[in-house]
């Protein structure tokens, strides 16, 4: 799948091809630096990260005293890896945990984010990833606000082999669905319960109240253990407006990771760096299409290679 991302980024001439062309067109001069900077900005790396990277690149290339395109490209690769930060903990909670009373309870993963970003789809695909790893999984359809959301999640569950706990009542309390899902998860002894939440963007206070309640109620069902993971689903193609909305979620709830969807639909791979810096949370999953195998754990090295090839 990283191969597909690579093809996509290549086809649209993201960072890699642009810079490669610059570096192979001859000596590196002032214009080359300007053009590299422009290419990075075009790839949505963001002004801060671009400045940081350009400073490091200029300095290191000066120290190396080289004009060899391959050497410069290697320095660029190393600096991009630093920006993506491979040291961040990107592991996803995937096994049962011990509750305060000593019993084993499932890890609970809550999916949050604005409607249309791919939350339900990502929940389905994440179930698939877990099943492929040999985990047992249950879905909770706590997006009770949109009538079709529970149906959509259930359909995904059937495709990937995961049972969905849902309410038959429209506008049921999302927290009560979460409670039921966690309880069912405990009864069935599953490893992970993934809860899809509503993505209507009210104000920060409303969001805090709603997500906070789900968290508290799930923790009660978990006999005092905490939700292990809150994944913020973010659409890579939405730009600044999407970032603004994501920030509201990140402020309302303690996000532990980002699922960046629709990376197949953009040449602007630099968004990964941008999003991580802005929200201070690692990208853990990337969506590369609408199919059930189109979600993959984020690999920083593979990603940088994809950007540069
Ligand atoms: P939700 O409202 O946030 O639950 O969003 P959905 O899960 O319903 O997804 C909205 C649309 O985005 C659907 O048409 C999905 O198929 C599509 N989608 C989700 N993830 C990806 C992705 O990684 N790539 C592409 N191309 N489309 C995606």
UniProtKB/TrEMBL annotation:
Localization of this protein: Cell membrane; Cytoplasm
Catalytic reaction annotation: GTP + H2O = GDP + phosphate + H(+)
Keywords: Cell membrane, Cytoplasm, GTP-binding, Hydrolase, Membrane, Nucleotide-binding, Receptor
Keyword Cytoplasm: yes
Enzyme Commission code(s) on record: 3.6.5.4
Superkingdom classification of source: Bacteria
Annotated SRP54-type proteins GTP-binding domain residues: 282-295
The protein's enzyme class: hydrolase
Binding site for GTP: 113-120, 196-200, 261-264
Protein's UniProt keywords contain Cell membrane: yes
Membrane topology term: Peripheral membrane protein
Annotated function: Involved in targeting and insertion of nascent membrane proteins into the cytoplasmic membrane. Acts as a receptor for the complex formed by the signal recognition particle (SRP) and the ribosome-nascent chain (RNC).
Subunit structure: Part of the signal recognition particle protein translocation system, which is composed of SRP and FtsY.
Assigned protein family: Belongs to the GTP-binding SRP family. FtsY subfamily.
Protein name in the entry: Signal recognition particle receptor FtsY
Naturally occurring in which organism (per UniProt): Dermabacter vaginalis
First and last residues shown, out of full length: 189 to 497 of 497
């Amino acid at each position: 799948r990283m191969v597909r991302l690579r093809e996509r980024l290549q086809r649209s001439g993201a960072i890699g091809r642009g810079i490669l062309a610059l570096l192979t067109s001859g000596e590196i001069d002032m214009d080359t630096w300007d053009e590299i900077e422009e290419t990075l900005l075009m790839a949505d790396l963001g002004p801060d990260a671009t400045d940081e990277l350009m400073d490091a690149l200029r300095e290191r290339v000066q120290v190396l005293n080289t004009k060899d395109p391959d050497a410069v490209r290697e320095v660029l690769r190393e600096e991009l890896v630093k920006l993506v930060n491979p040291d961040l903990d990107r592991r996803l909670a995937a096994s049962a945990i011990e509750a305060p009373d000593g019993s084993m309870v499932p890890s609970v993963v809550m999916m949050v984010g604005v409607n249309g970003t791919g939350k339900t789809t990502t929940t389905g695909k994440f179930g698939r990833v877990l099943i492929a790893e040999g985990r047992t999984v249950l879905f909770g359809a706590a997006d009770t606000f949109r009538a079709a959301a529970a149906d959509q999640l259930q359909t995904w569950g059937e495709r990937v082999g995961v049972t969905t706990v849902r309410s038959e009542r429209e506008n049921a309390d999302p927290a009560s669905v979460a409670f039921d899902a966690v309880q069912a998860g405990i009864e069935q002894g599953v490893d992970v319960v993934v809860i899809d939440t509503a993505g209507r963007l009210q104000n920060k206070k409303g969001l805090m109240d709603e997500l906070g309640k789900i968290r508290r109620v799930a923790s009660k069902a978990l006999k005092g253990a905490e939700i292990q993971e809150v994944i913020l689903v973010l659409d890579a193609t939405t730009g600044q407006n999407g970032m603004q909305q994501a920030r509201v979620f990140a402020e309302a709830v303690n996000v532990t990771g980002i699922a960046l969807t629709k990376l197949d639909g953009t040449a602007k791979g630099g968004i990964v760096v941008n999003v991580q810096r802005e929200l201070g949370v690692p990208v853990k999953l990337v969506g590369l299409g609408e199919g059930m195998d189109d979600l993959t754990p984020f690999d920083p090295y593979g990603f940088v290679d994809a950007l540069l090839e």
